[in-house]
Design goal:
alpha+beta, Glutaredoxin, six-stranded mixed β-sheet, globular
Length: 218
Amino acid sequence: MNKIAVIILPLALIAILGAIFLFLKYLPEEKTSLPEKIEFKSETVPAKRIDGGWTRGVEQASLELIEFANFSCPACAAYAPILNQLLKNIPELKITYKHFPFSYHKNDIPAAMAAEAAGEQGKFAEMAELLYARQDEWVNSRNNEIFIRYAEALGLDIEKFKKDLDNSELKTRILTNLSEANQRQLNATPTFFLNGKKIEFPPEYTQAYKIITSAAKK
């Protein structure tokens, strides 16, 4: 290699690296557009915080269906209206939601925090319903301001909601549910337990109704 090549090659390499640096520096940032004002009418049954979860239905109900789920899960979203219908049509049923966030879902924890923050104002189930209904809108978003829009749609106190999004006690609730899911060695969402026994049923109302009511008779 001659002396000219020895000089030119390092200079060329520096020029290439400089061009790459400038390209990346001025590359436009990906922005997630926020929706306009959201109109939302909830059809869910309100939830109360009982025994480490959020329970809908009569507290003294003889049947308790516990659901381990997360708001990023498409299957969980498919089950949501079915569970709501079951709850309305089986008087002796109550349904308890417990968080089971996955580490590879980047917005599982933020969405769970949004639901918990809404729960502090009596709107956990309503926020959960909204998160499922608009799942495609936020699941890969880099802008968590979208949860503020949802809180506005539910008529929440926005300043309190914002503070609760950073409430360590609420995050502890989520992590406690996650710990329970791990102790049970769960690996999928949603996972259901009826009166303590693991149960499976399809996201179809008629079959789900038959399976749950027949399981209750055993």
